[in-house]
Write a structure and sequence with these properties.
Elements (H helix, E strand, L loop, with lengths): L1 H13 L4 E10 L9 E5 L4 E3 L7 H14 L3 E6 L12 E4 L7 E9 L4 E5 L3 H12 L3 E5 L9 E2 L13 E5 L6 H11 L3 E4 L3 H13 L4 H4 L2 E2 L11 H18 L26 E3 L6 E3 L5 E5 L2 E5 L2 H9 L1 H5 L3 E3 L6 E3 L5 E5 L2 E5 L2 H9 L1 H9 L2
Parallel strand pairs: 4-5, 7-8, 7-10, 8-9, 10-11, 11-12
Antiparallel strand pairs: 1-2, 1-6, 2-3, 4-6, 13-14, 15-16, 17-18, 19-20
Helix pairs in contact: 3-7, 4-5, 10-11
Amino acid sequence: MIHEFFSKAQELLNQKTPFAMALVVRAEKPTSGKPGDKALITADGEMHGWIGGSCSQPTVIREAQKALKEGKSRFIRLSPDPSKLTPLEGLIDLPITCFSGGTLEIYIEPQYPQPRLLVVGNLPVARALVALGNVMNYDVVGVDPDSTATSQVVTSLADIAKYVRPDTYAVVATHGNFDETALEQVLKAKPRYVGLVASQKRFQAVLEYLRLQGVSETDLKRIKAPAGLDIQAQQGDEIALSIMAEIVQHRRTAQEADDWEAPVIEEVIIPTAQETPSGIAIDPVCLMEVDIATAKFTYDYEGKTYYFCAPSCKMSFRKNPQAYLNPALTLDPVCGMEIEITSAQFSSDYAGKTYYFCGAGCKAEFDQHPENYAMVMHHH
């Protein structure tokens, strides 16, 4: 019997199902429950095990559900007439539903699976977040469409919702590569926390795009950008640390949601690409190479078609084409901010090209791993 009890507990943990353990600590006859009797109760009221008969079960299930919702253990005493008992500190007196008499004292303790950390991206901040999440024993899932890894890495943005549970903390850290598409999928799945690694200017462009896609203001307000607590972080690992600190703060202070519905997984239908000119174009906003034959985002301006790697780049170009056709402007490869070359105070040379930055922090991040950011600027 004891083997079955612990096997069931392990099964629920493996299924990432929260449950409460109820243990009979003391019993006064006549009761069917005995000291050492134990049961597991899930949030939907399903009981596995034994803590007494029908006299005590409804109350224990109800109190277990309260413990799961509040995230706190409770110690209850069931008796025919609680008013006749001497109150004890830390003990909750409740009436038993039978008239046969007897008293049961039951300790109830909620158990939760490790929270899930879902990280979208593969650049330094994302990699540091994955490492920290593993060290802190989170259930870590990486989302990287370009990955060929065989470990737990999701390679399709459309599959994000399948990996979001009620206790999921999601961070989008693609440095502008596919922020908008990833956030659309993340917000649909309603995780507990949504963070975006981006500058305020970049964040406003993302918000504008998401509004055009019909994302509600309620969902948009759930995005924390820039993600992380303000600890004056500059390098990728420091930014990751600030984000994990914010997630811990959120976990410990936020109230548990009353209920949660599993997200609806919508089928994503990719239209057949129409015949287009062959060759490679340069996205005028981020300077990435775009395969013209498969480009999803285009815009015609003054008789010429421009190709873009992402909807955010197309939107930025539409708002002010001349700003991107003017060679005096470029983008910070780390945060995506527009930089006027003639007035830029921070720059670095790498592989025969000069990169410009909005501040010392972005320059330091680039100088640490220039190959990562140069790759993002030139390859999608």
